[in-house]
Design brief:
0% strand
Length: 337
Amino acid sequence: MNTSFYRITLLAVALCFVVVTVGAYVRLSDAGLGCPDWPGCYGHIGVPGHREAVDAANQAFPERPVETGKAWKEMVHRYLAGTLGLLILALAGMAWLRRETVRQRSLATLLLGVVVFQAVLGMWTVTLLLKPLVVTAHLLGGMTVLALLLLMLLRQGGHLRLAASAGRGLRAAAGVGLAVLICQIFLGAWTSTNYAALACPDFPTCQRAWWPETDFATAFTLWHGLGINYEYGILDSVPRATIHLTHRIGALVTAVVLLGVAAVAFARGRLDGRWRLLGGLLVAALCLQIALGVTTVVAHLPLAVAVAHNGGAALLLLTVMAINHAAWAGTAPGVRP
């Protein structure tokens, strides 16, 4: 195992988790347009601070006067994301120059491509005025980078070589669990980017009904055209409630599927106790995420809890990815992928 490559990958995983969480904080604190241009902020590398610079920025962007707090939130997120991009660039260079395995080189190259596209999505997030489809894609891109980095980490040093005791049933269950979780993450992102988190302010009912008035056609119209400012959302209450309700239904389906994955993992614990550990971690992450989701609604969207809910989704994704890796990594301990 290449120690330096491993350490940089581990650092990148940790930083990516921070970037995803900080991105959620920026979005949920309504700071997504804290800097109306990209990649700088009002034409500066940092946030304008002096009175003259602020006045000039306000003249250049009269529709978006400087709000220092929001601007710094956005720029800190960009600095962190830029640092992560440099780490991934370094990993890609090391993978090719130090002749890592073909799978690691391919994964490093894929990661670099995803990060470049993420940067484009970050630019479009600002220039297209928080278009929900773009912001949702940006969030999913961040989750994708996190999952791929974890996969790169687990492929080093023989981590979680449990495939010999996995069986086809667990492999199939883990794959289905990952697919369902990705769909649920999309629904969560769509709920957030359309400002529908409080469209159902009660729980477990929605607007005091088990099935409120719905409008799925409007709720899931992905493209509303250009030139529209999507800050604070443009949908009426009915489509927003529809989005929120769909997210709740998705949460229920996801919980059932992931509990099924955990049950199969527990059953495999007879052959290798580490499966029991992975199953337990999945149940714990799932329970935490459900608790955070419910608290987000009943406490009326406290910022810290809402950000933690996004972090919980990332944690759940990491756990499911680890189970998938363990199920498919190799056929015997010590076999390098």
